[in-house]
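The records we work with from here on pair a chain with its fold. Here is one such record, which you should read through line by line:
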Amino acid sequence: MDHYLVQGTSGSSPSERVNEDVDTALNFRENQQMQLEQDGKNVEKPLYTANALAAGEGRNGTARTSDGKLDVTLASPVELGGTGRGTNPEQLFAAGYAACFHSALRMLALKERADLTDSAVAAKVHLVQPDGTAYVLEVELEVALPVLDLSTAEALVARAHAICPYSNATRGNITVDIRILEYAA
């Protein structure tokens, strides 16, 4: 369900290269996890746990974290018949996915000494109803890596997609389109 697109290129070779890089990165991650399990290390222990409470009328209520750092009014968007006078779950998901994916890129770039000057990730989260009953999310990630050449950008994006917690949580569940919109010529 994941799609990798590189804007401004012709043919399918860049996408195929990114898909191969994702497969390689995923295999590496799975092998690491199996090795940890064989070594008797607990791979299920959380590194961090976020706690949040939504109250009120769901999409038209409030949400806050236990530490108080996030405290928002929720409102359905106008497009769904709401007032639009608050944030909504799709906006929160988009912000979280963009930040998490960008962090994955930056962590890998630091290890590989890749220059991510002026890099950015934008996320679009679509709420769709493909069969007229169930609601489904679809995600578009737009990546800008203006200092990296296309080949390096593709490989880094593929590896980031393999380690990003949001990517791992959504893989196989929803469509995620990743586009590299900006790279060095």
Summary: Residues 8-15 have pLDDT under 50 and may be disordered. The first helix runs from residue 13 to 38. Helices lie at 13-38, 89-112, 150-163, 165-170.
